[in-house]
Amino acid sequence: xxxxxxxxxxxxxxxxxxxxxxxxxxxxxxxxxxxxxxxxxxxxxxxxxxxxxxxxxxxxxxxxxxxxxxxxxxxxxxxxxxxxxxxxxxxxxxxxxxxxxxxxxxxxxxxxxxxxxxxxxxxxxxxxxxxxxxxxxxxxxxxxxxxxxxxxxxxxxxxxxxxxxxxxxxxxxxxxxxxxxxxxxxxxxxxxxxxxxxxxxxxxxxxxxxxxxxxxxxxxxxxxxxxxxxxxxxxxxxxxxxxxxxxxxxxxxxxxxxxxxxxxxxxxxxxxxxxxxxxxxxxxxxxxxxxxxxxxxxxxxxxxxxxxxxxxxxxxxxxxxxxxxxxxxxxxxxxxxxxxxxxxxxxx
Length: 348
Known about the structure:
This protein is α+β, with helices and mostly antiparallel strands and 348 residues long.
C-alpha cells in the first residue's frame, strides 16, 4: 500500500512562502531582548498596530478631509496638521490599551502623558507623525519612537527621570515610514531589521534583515534654502559635496531622508542656524532613536561635537543639531568642522 508522506511545498510556483511576519520574528527573537519576559515584545506589537491604523488614515486622508492644518500650534510653536492630532491620539490609545507603557512624551504635547498603567515597565518618547505637512502633496511621512525601561519604582507614578536617562539607555527604537509602501524599522540594540506592510494579509513581513549602511555614499540631504544661515564650515562642506559631484536629495521628512540614506549611503544634515542656534530637531524623540538605529546599522550620528547618544538630556523637548549617515561621510564633515562646531562662526 502506498504511503503519502509529507513533503516540502515551499518551492511550488503556486504556493511560495509568505515570509516571516513581524509577530513571528518578535517571538523568535524575544530571548535576545535584555528583559525577555514578554512585555517589550507586546509593546513593539502595540506600536506596529498603531502604525497600521495611521497607515489607513494616511491612505484615506484626502477622502475624509484629514489634510491641512488645525489652525493651532503644538508645544514646539509649529502649526499642527490634522493628521498630527489624529496620529497622536491613535498612538496614545494603542500604548495605553496595551498596558505595558506607564508614560509617554510626544512632540504634540508639552507634559508627560500618564497612561494610568503604573505597573507598566516602559516609557515611550515619540514623534507621532514627522513631516505631516507633506501629506497634502502625497509625500512620504513617518513615525519615530524610542523605548526606555522606567527607572522609577513599578507601581509608582512615572516622572521626568524616566525619560531623561540618555540615549545609551534606550532598550528599543524605530520608525515607521508611510510612503509608496509602509515600512517599520526597529532595533532592540542588536541588529536593525525592516518589515514591509502587506496590505493583502494585514501583516508586516521581514523585507530587510540585518540592515547595514554602505561605508560611504554620494547623497547629501539638507535644506539648502537655509545655507546662508549655516556655520561657515558647514557651508564649506556642502561646497565639498558639490565638488565631489554628490547628489542633493532632500524630502523634508526626516524619516524618509534618513531611510533613503540608510539603504543607499548618504549623510543627513540639520545644522544650527542663526534662527535656531541650538538646532531644531528634538533630542529625545527624533535624534536619539535615529542615532540608536544608525549606530547599530553601521552609521554615525553627531551634533558636530560629540556622538548624539552621548548628549546629556535635561529637557523633554530639548533640541539639537544632527548630522547622521554613512561613517566616511560623517567623518569628512567632522574634518571640516574641527576643532568643533560653535555658534561663533554662524553668520551675523
